[in-house]
């Protein structure tokens, strides 16, 4: 029996991690803590919300008192920390929100664990889920490894880099059992349509322009979200204390090539003439400080913990498109209300 606090479990990746742990480990008690920001959605978890080993707590990780009280009341064995502000464009508009949640929120969780796990650090694990964006940008060549120096460029990646440093500092200073993983761009179901792939699917479906930043030449390494959740499971259970793993898809795509592939898939799924959706592609002003290329070397994870991605990108992308087309209500719900004003503000001047 283990009681695990998963933070950010109502978000995109968090909901896949919660689902995996609730279903795979009926003898674990999973407590999902989430503030339910615009990105958090309990509709992501309707299939498991009534399971006896699952509980939801609405809380804000920037509220240190509330976090301490939760740790006092619940005897957690481990934390898997995913709660974060996660969108680069929003971090350019409002960096402070990223400092508050990603840095202060992480330190609040570390402080609570440090206090309430005293005397049993060897039996408790703090697993911090991070991003490859902390390593900065690559040129045409090379890949990020676990020893690549941190060089973040956006307020988002700077805040995640800072949180990673705090997690390592608590391991080195207090001897807490901390583990970190840094993953490349995820894609799949339940992804909030402010990020490239779900935004493009939604716009193509609605015959709206598909905004491509700059020349569309930036490269990202895409990983199926369920493969990320499986990697988190393996690392959580088998990593050595203080260890770090990179997680990636070995799947690099230029944005414009990815969007063209997506347009082809959407033409087929929607019964449109070939080339119809690609007419929606619209080049817009580039993102400030836009990192050119990310690519992850996940050899360590493959060799030590026997993890490899399971899906080819074309197959995963087609499955993702199917999910969005079959879950129109989910998409309509998350794109009503605040989404409209965000979209207006983000794309009107481009
Ligand atoms: P997301 O934005 O979809 O979800 C974040 C969740 O955190 C939401 O449910 C939100 O309500 C919650 N949250 C935000 N602020 C909070 C607060 N103050 N207190 C409590 N809950 C709060 O993000 P995601 O894409 O699922 O990313 C999850 C984690 O994985 C993040 O830490 C992110 O940095 C990391 N990551 C994401 C990617 C990616 O491609 N999306 C890749 C690598 C790493
Ligand atoms: P995004 O999904 O925001 O992830 P990240 O910035 O964390 O990598 O963006 C992926 C890539 O797509 C990135 O190079 C920026 C680009 N992009 C566009 O070209 N148009 C868009 O509307 C968005 C949201 C992103």
TrEMBL record:
Cofactors (names): NAD(+)
Alphabetized InterPro entries for the sequence: dTDP_Gluc_deHydtase, NAD(P)-bd_dom, NAD(P)-bd_dom_sf
GO molecular function: dTDP-glucose 4,6-dehydratase activity
Catalytic activity, EC: 4.2.1.46
Start and end residues of each NAD(P)-binding domain: 5-320
Reactions it catalyzes: dTDP-alpha-D-glucose = dTDP-4-dehydro-6-deoxy-alpha-D-glucose + H2O
Presence of the UniProt keyword DNA-binding in the record: no
Keyword line: Lyase, NAD
Gene Ontology terms: biological process: nucleotide-sugar metabolic process
Entry similarity comment: Belongs to the NAD(P)-dependent epimerase/dehydratase family. dTDP-glucose dehydratase subfamily.
Protein name, per record: dTDP-glucose 4,6-dehydratase
Encoding gene, per UniProt annotation: rfbB
């Amino acid at each position: 029996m283990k009681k695990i606090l998963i933070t950010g479990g109502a978000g995109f990746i968090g909901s896949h991690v919660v689902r995996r742990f609730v279903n795979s480990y009926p003898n674990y008690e999973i407590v999902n803590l989430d503030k339910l920001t615009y990105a958090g959605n309990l509709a992501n978890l309707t299939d498991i919300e009534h399971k006896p080993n699952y509980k939801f707590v609405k809380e804000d990780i920037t509220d240190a008192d509330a976090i301490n009280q939760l740790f006092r009341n619940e005897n957690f064995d481990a934390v898997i920390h995913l709660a974060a502000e996660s969108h680069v464009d929003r971090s350019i508009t409002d960096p402070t929100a990223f400092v508050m949640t990603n840095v202060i929120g992480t330190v609040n969780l570390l402080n609570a664990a440090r206090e309430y796990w005293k005397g049993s650090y060897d039996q408790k694990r703090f697993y911090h889920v991070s991003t490859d964006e902390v390593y900065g940008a690559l040129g045409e060549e090379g890949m990020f490894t676990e020893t690549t120096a941190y060089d973040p460029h956006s307020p988002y990646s700077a805040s995640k880099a800072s949180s990673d440093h705090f997690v390592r500092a608590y391991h080195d200073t207090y001897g807490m059992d901390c583990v970190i993983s840094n993953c490349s761009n995820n894609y799949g179901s339940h992804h909030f349509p402010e990020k490239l792939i779900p935004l493009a699917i939604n716009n193509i479906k609605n015959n709206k322009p598909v905004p491509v930043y700059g020349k569309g030449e930036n490269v990202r390494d895409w990983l199926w979200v369920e493969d990320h959740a499986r990697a988190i499971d393996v690392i959580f259970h088998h990593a050595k204390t203080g260890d770090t793993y990179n997680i990636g898809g070995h799947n690099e795509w230029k944005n414009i090539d990815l969007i063209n592939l997506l347009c082809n898939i959407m033409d087929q799924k929607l019964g449109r003439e070939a080339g119809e959706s690609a007419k929606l592609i619209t080049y817009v002003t580039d993102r400030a400080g836009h990192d050119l290329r990310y690519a992850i070397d996940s050899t360590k994870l493959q060799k030590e913990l026997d993890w490899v991605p399971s899906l080819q990108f074309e197959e995963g992308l087609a499955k993702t498109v199917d999910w969005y087309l079959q879950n129109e209500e989910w998409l309509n719900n998350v794109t009503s209300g605040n989404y409209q004003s965000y979209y207006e503000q983000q794309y009107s001047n481009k």
